Every structure is written in structure tokens, then in C-alpha cells.
Amino acid sequence: MNDKQHTIKAPVTVSGIGLHTGVSANMTFCPAPVNHGYKFQRVDMPGQPIVDADVDNVVDLSRGTTIEQNGARINTVEHTLAALVGLQIDNVLIQLDGPEPPIMDGSSYEFIKSLMEVGLQEQNALRNYFEIPEEIRFVDNARAVEIAALPLNDYRLTVMVDYNSPVLGSQHASLTDITQFTAEISSSRTFCFLHELEALYKSNLIKGGDLSNAIVVVDRVVSDEELTELATMLGKPKVAVKKEGILNNVDLRYKNEPARHKLLDMVGDLALVGRPLKGQILAARPGHAANVAFAKKIKKKMMEANTSAVPTYDPGREPVMDINQIMQVLPHRYPFLLIDKVIHLDANTVASIKNVTVNEPFFTGHYPGNPVFPGVLQVEAMAQTGGILVLNTVPDPENYTPYFLGIENCRFRKMVKPGDTIIFRCQLLSPIKRGIAKMKGQAFVNGKVVMEAEMSAAIVKKEA
């Protein structure tokens, strides 16, 4: 799985008809900055409102997942989101001039094909994975649905479906590596049973449905008269039933194509948690309602973890900024440059690393018989970390200098000694106004808070 965030190199547009609305639309994938995530934009509406791809914005689950925000609605988002997750793309603005993404061939493949044509762009920020910390389970006894997420340092999904149908019966599909999504899952098409078809039409759904973009499973004997009525309903001169029970002689791409499509839907629906996932997902008889309910449970666990999470540091992962990149931004130099790496940076939070060694020059005079990292230098290191955060708010940080303005509620909780690795984290307490930032800072060693403070800083443009 990717360590760094990715967007796309250039905009790319796909066009077609929406599955349920029947409205033609152009959908343009646009590059987006670090930590942007997935957002839809209704460019056909006044003000061009933005809709975040967030599980809290789900408003309808009638045969697809529909989100709404700022008075704008986007129908059937799951195939589009699945393509982005499958390619490990993190940041994209999806502009639509209609209410629903094009259904294309009923899968995610055409989206992936277009995205790969323009190519992916690596970004200088680490992916903000949510690692499933413990078993998370969802059960719907009425529908015999069960979904579980288990801890795993990877993203794997297994789906089992069980239909009371001689055509499909029980099927399962697995994705053991997200990089296999394009080849193994993305081309699996949406499907429905013949007995559902008429009900969907009467419910004013699948207006854009066509035998070229959906599989219709015939699960009973159909008379010639019914086939004629179906042809009229579908706007076709004639429809027939294949021996395997698929309408209009459509060939399945895989024997278990329905199960693979259910897995595709789940990948797209779980994207609505807002962060890439690490975990093992096991699902029996899932559907959009169950997927979204499960996504809400994951997001709740994610929000709980965010309130108490201690930053983690993996020395094997490439940092957001190494020491050379830090020196391009901060004006400090030896012996007063006190952070070694930046391991996280977004619009509101930054985390850095300081490796404390006995060779620091101040140890020769600061308690030389019992070396302790000076508290005042911990504050300075935290201020430098905060300086990275405030400089990240301007497009040309090399033309600005951060200045430490004040400190409040500073507390030292534990001594820091040579051999310790300090993780500094600074978070904005409010939006930056007139170049002034107020931050909450904490320092951690071995998962314990060793120092904390509230700080204010300013960024001032350098004189020409």
C-alpha cells in the first residue's frame, strides 16, 4: 500500500447517463491538494456547491448510495469512489454537471481507465490511514447480514453472497491486495434479479438502466409474452434468456461476477469513512444499507481514537519533510535547529521528531553528571514544529519567517534524557487570522506526554 498521498496529474472527463436518474452528465476528475480527500461539486447548480464524500452525508440508499450537502445531491457514488480507492488516489475534486455519475458499463473500469490515462501524481504528505484497532462488528438479523473488521496491517476484503436462486446460488469474492482491484474487481458490473426489475421501474429508479450496463438475472421461467413486455419496458426490439439465466445473452465476465460487484460496492461505500483503511473486512450478504451502517461504526471508532491518539513514529516510513527540506523552510541552523523530521502535516496539525543524543552541545553544561534535555529547548523545538504548521498556510513559505509570540499553560510532565525520541504535535486551536496562529502543543516520549503548552506565533513576510 502507498505511504504517500496521491492525486491525478491532470483533469479527465467521462460522460454518460445516470443509472437511476436517467440524466446525462459529464463528470470531471480534477487534481486536488494534500488532505483534500474526495469531494463532489455540482457545477450545474447556482454557487456550484461542494458535497463531501462522507458517511454523515448519506441521505438515500435506494439501490445505491446517495449523498447530499449544501443543498446539492449526488446519486450512486459508490462506483466512482471504488475506482479512486482501488487506485489509491487520495485527493480529487469530482465535478458533475448533473445529479448522478455516469453508469458507464455498470462497473468502475471505465473510470479507472480514464484516470490511468492522465496518470497519478505523488504528493509530499503521508497517507492518514485508520488502522482497525480491534474487532468492529455489524449484524442485521432481519436480513441475515453480518460484517466484521479485524486488525491487519493491510487492506483485504472478503464478501459472501447467498441468493435463493438456481442461477447464482452462493458465491464469494476476495481482494487480498488493493493493487489487484483494477484487474480482479473493477470490471464487475451491477446486477439485479428479473423479479426486481419491474419494481425498480415502478419506483422511478433505473431510468438509465440498460442491458449494456447491468446484468439481469432470470430466476424463474419467463413466457414469450413476458419477454415481449420486457422488451417494450427496456426499449429493445427483442430480449431473450440465455441458458445460464442471464437476460439478453449477456456474457458474465466472471462466474462470480455478482459477488465481485458486491465487493466493489463495499470498497466504494467504505470510502465514505474519509480515510484509507487498514484492516481485514469480512462480509456476509452485504448491501448498501449495511455497508453505510458499518461505515458509520468505523467512523465513530475513528473519531474516538482521534481524541486520545498518541502519534506513532515508524522510522522505516519516508517522512513528510527530512532535515534538508526543513532547512529550506525554517531559518534555524546548528546548534539551534531542534527538530529532525516532520512525519505529519495537514491544514490543522503537524508532528515532528527530535532524537535526543548525549552529543547535544548543551549537555556539556546542563547537568553534565545527570543529563536532562532542557525544558526551555523542548519549548523551542515545539515552537519550531508550530512554525512548520503556520508556514504551511502560505503558498510561498520561503518568503516568510515564523516568530514565537507567547506561551500559556506550559507544563513539564516527565524528564527527557539522552536516547529518547520526542514526538512533537501542534494543532491549531482556531483559524489563522492576520498571520497570527494559536496552537495546542504536546510532546510525547514512549507514548507518554512529557510536556504540553498553548502557544501563539506569527508569520511575517521577509523584506525584499
Describe the model.
InterPro entries: FabA_FabZ, FabZ, HotDog_dom_sf, Ribosomal_Su5_D2-typ_SF, UDP-acyl_GlcNac_deAcase, UDP-acyl_GlcNac_deAcase_C, UDP-acyl_N-AcGlcN_deAcase_N. This is Multifunctional fusion protein. Its EC number is 4.2.1.59, 3.5.1.108. With 464 residues, the protein is of the alpha+beta class. It has 3 domains: 4-186 and 258-307, lpxc deacetylase, domain 1 (Ribosomal Protein S5, domain 2), CATH 3.30.230; 191-252, no CATH class; 323-461, Hotdog Thioesterase (Thiol Ester Dehydrase, Chain A, Roll), CATH 3.10.129.10. The protein has helices at 78-86, 109-118, 181-184, 194-202, 224-234, 257-270, 288-308, 323-329, 375-391, and strands at residues 4-8, 12-17, 24-31, 38-42, 50-52, 58-60, 66-69, 72-74, 92-96, 120-126, 130-131, 136-140, 145-150, 155-162, 170-175, 191-193, 215-217, 277-284, 341-345, 349-355, 400-412, 421-428, 436-445, 448-461. The strands form 6 sheets. Strands 11, 12, 13, 14, 15 and 18 form a 6-stranded mixed β-sheet that branches. It has a 6-stranded antiparallel β-sheet with strand order 19-20-22-23-24-21, with helices on one face. A 5-stranded mixed β-sheet has the order 2-3-9-4-5, covered by helices on one side. α1 crosses α6 and α6 packs parallel to α7 (288-308). The longest helix has 21 residues, at 288-308.
